[in-house]
Design a protein that fits this description.
By secondary structure, this protein is α/β, with parallel strands linked by helices. It is built from seven helices and six strands, in the order αβαβαβαβαβααβ. The protein has a four-stranded parallel beta sheet with strand order 3-4-5-6, sandwiched between helices. The chain has a two-stranded parallel sheet with strand order 1-2. Helix 1 runs parallel beside helix 2 (about 25-35).
């Protein structure tokens, strides 16, 4: 949901894009829609973000051909379960996708950004990076970790003009948002993904002495 909207927004600016996901058929559908939005090249990379070896392979392929200027980490899973019913596998899967994959992608592409003395990294966390709730302990832990990673990397990389921002939205009108609805939240009050995409793209456009290092995007009506 959000990844597609971000891609559409970037395409409208004329950017060249690489879309990453595990489902090739879905990627091709999104690719066609994104290609119609702008003149840039739109490539797809099939990659299982749960598996570090898949990420390493993809990064190696891309680094041999290009430099990534802007990296948006927005893939995520949202497990709902009590701690007593959460398996070790559930925990590892959530951490792998929500934290480890962004870490590996940043690590894989940051050298090119540093060499070019320009790069933008956007990590999509969540309002859960600042709070906790019942039946979402693993998800909240993963988003707290992503926020901490972002804060540290902002300070580490800014000297190279590689700027790291952590964007933490409230509930979004996506398929994942339908899962959030199970916790008693009202879907009609959720944020439109296109609005968040506008914010992300505008944030990476700043090229002076200002950065939105850490942003919380809340809903107007929060239950």
């Amino acid at each position: 949901g959000l990844g597609k909207e971000v891609a559409l927004k970037y395409a409208s600016t004329g950017a060249n894009l690489i879309l990453v996901g595990r489902n090739e058929a879905t990627l091709k559908e999104v690719q066609q829609e994104v290609c119609a939005k702008g003149p840039g090249v739109v490539d797809i990379q099939v990659c299982n973000l749960e598996k570090p070896e898949d990420i390493f392979s993809m990064v190696e392929r891309l680094n041999s051909k290009m430099t990534v200027d802007v990296l948006v980490n927005c893939a995520g899973v949202f497990p709902i379960s009590t701690i007593r019913d959460t398996s070790v596998e559930d925990y590892q899967n959530c951490m792998n996708i929500n934290v480890t994959a962004p870490f590996l992608l940043i690590k894989g592409f940051v050298d090119g950004m540093v060499q070019n003395k320009w790069g933008r990294i956007i990590n999509i966390a969540s309002s859960s990076a600042y709070a906790g709730g019942p039946r979402t302990s693993v998800y909240c832990a993963s988003k707290h970790a992503l926020l901490g990673l972002s804060r540290s990397l902002f300070k580490e990389l800014k000297q190279y003009n590689v700027l790291v921002s952590c964007i933490s939205p409230g509930s979004i009108k996506t398929s994942m948002g339908r899962e959030v609805e199970k916790l008693g939240q009202e879907y009609d009050t959720f944020i439109e993904p296109a609005e968040i995409a506008d914010f992300i793209v505008n944030n990476t456009a700043f090229d002076g002495n200002m950065i939105a290092e850490e942003v919380r995007l809340n809903r107007v009506f929060i239950q």
